[in-house]
Design brief:
Helices cover 46% and strands 19% of the residues. The chain has 131 residues and is an alpha/beta fold.
Length: 131
């Protein structure tokens, strides 16, 4: 019996990508999504918003996705929240590095908006079934 994914925190500094992802996940996917445009904003938002999953861009100014993930693990209300990275770095060894940090998945940019919600849901479900 697996909990259904309904609530995400999406962290992305590129406004055009953010608009596409938000529209895709909310309008097509039926998910509740809050967008943060920086790692710092995500850290300030995560406890009050209480997402089930954080969709986290890897390359951002100021604080990278992996740096943000490490800091999320230090927040009591957020340390067990699942994370999926989004990145343009498509090489296998780079993706493996992100998974080794504890992320449940990696989505490579450019992504297909029509399958994005399914990709995220499948990663979420697979991770929940392991636990």
């Amino acid at each position: 019996m697996s909990e259904k994914l309904t609530k995400l925190l999406f962290v992305e500094d590129d406004e055009s990508i953010a608009q596409i992802v938000m529209m895709t996940l909310q309008d097509l996917g039926g998910l509740t999504v809050k967008h943060c445009n920086s790692g710092q904003m995500a850290l300030e938002t995560v406890s009050d918003y209480a997402p089930q999953l954080v969709l986290l861009d890897v390359m951002m100014p100021g604080m990278s996705g992996p740096e943000t993930f490490e800091k999320l693990k230090e927040i009591p209300n957020a340390k067990h929240v699942s994370v999926i990275f989004m990145t343009a770095k498509a090489q296998t060894h780079e993706q493996e590095k992100y998974l080794e940090t504890g992320a449940i998945g990696v989505i490579v940019k450019p992504f297909d908006p029509m399958t994005l919600t399914d990709q995220i849901t499948q990663m979420w479900t697979a991770a929940k079934e392991k636990n």
